[in-house]
Amino acid sequence: MKKELTQIQKKILDFLIDQKVSKGIPPTLAEIALHFGYKNRATVQQHLRALEKKGFIRKNPKLSRAIEITVEDKFFIPRPVLGEVAAGNPLTIYPDAIDTVELPTIARMPKDSFLLRVKGDSLKDAYIFSGDIVIVNPNLEPKNGQIVVAILDDAAVVKRFYKKKNEIELVSENPDYKPIVIDKKYPSFKIVGIVVGVYRSMDKKAV
Amino acid sequence: MKKELTQIQKKILDFLIDQKVSKGIPPTLAEIALHFGYKNRATVQQHLRALEKKGFIRKNPKLSRAIEITVEDKFFIPRPVLGEVAAGNPLTIYPDAIDTVELPTIARMPKDSFLLRVKGDSLKDAYIFSGDIVIVNPNLEPKNGQIVVAILDDAAVVKRFYKKKNEIELVSENPDYKPIVIDKKYPSFKIVGIVVGVYRSMDKKAV
DNA sequence: AAGTTTACCATACAAATGTATGGTATTTTA
DNA sequence: TAAAATACCATACATTTGTATGGTAAACTT
To answer: What is the DSSP letter of B61?
Structure first.
């Protein structure tokens, strides 16, 4: 049996994954048809049948929205990590995803938050370590003492944020690193978002 | 308007959250009715109407499974923390939930897993700290080097697991703590589960 | 050249689904 | 004590949904 997907089948699978990740629920046939402009559900039906035949999804017959995505591990869907962010010295942030993190299929990432993998050890006294995944919300105003992700000359850092009179100070918790002081008018400085959580999977830690 | 939930309404909300987290999709009215033993969907219908009236969910009319949970931030779902577990000296584990944690939906949380809050600093070299939430999966076999939760005489510890010839060694990463050595026939020793993830919220860290 | 796969369409239908309406009994609130 | 909310039940109905069947046209195997 041929296992490769056609262009359209791949687009539909992408849509299924995207819906499941962003909306939390798989779409109905009608919703898929609407999205792709099909005039009836039978067309979608055949694409799904092809996807199931090739082993990418499993359908629970008769139940609505019961499309299981069986690529890889059933539990996890790779999510892009948008870049690496330095806790010590700045690292470049990549325009495209540089890596993927295994997130559960059940996971629902809000559209406005994203993930970054931390490199470096300057935040070790804030208990964030190299390899950890930080959850970044770009739609929050930073308050003093919060940990933020900031862009400095095309590089990104994750540090604790302090607003002074005419400058902003980004401090590491690790005394080995000096605080970064930014004048408010510094052109290429931008707060990317607030770190709202840290997540670390233990999978790879076994010896 | 009264905002408090009745016992049954709370149970139904819990079920909605649980289904969304574990299955990824909210249930249909029929599925809820089946779970609670109701003979028809109209009963569920009224409970959902009450939940919506009190502002805990939002329904997208006419669409199947279109139940949005609107409690607090949609990003975080409250999950019970079953007890506290010692990374240093053993602590008692509580039979009922002692607290709830707003766990991000991105965190891996299989249905059979549960949460424990860590106290103590014996695992600080494994980057787990007092106050962190560990996600524990009780249905995995421990491998050498993995971090496990174990029960010793009605108290629980979280330590790194090493299986030797005739004994099991539970070691701290912190050199201040001596390893615990357990004979395989020790009666009240039991592995509770494997730590599959660590989560820490940043909310409270702002100064 | 013939067969298969792909990519759409249309129509039809049973089951699932959400919803409306009305009923009964108990508990809570005013 | 009366009114309102709660917690179930039953029946009914229009849509939604998944699915089956059959058709057309193009692209790609063999």
So the answer is: T
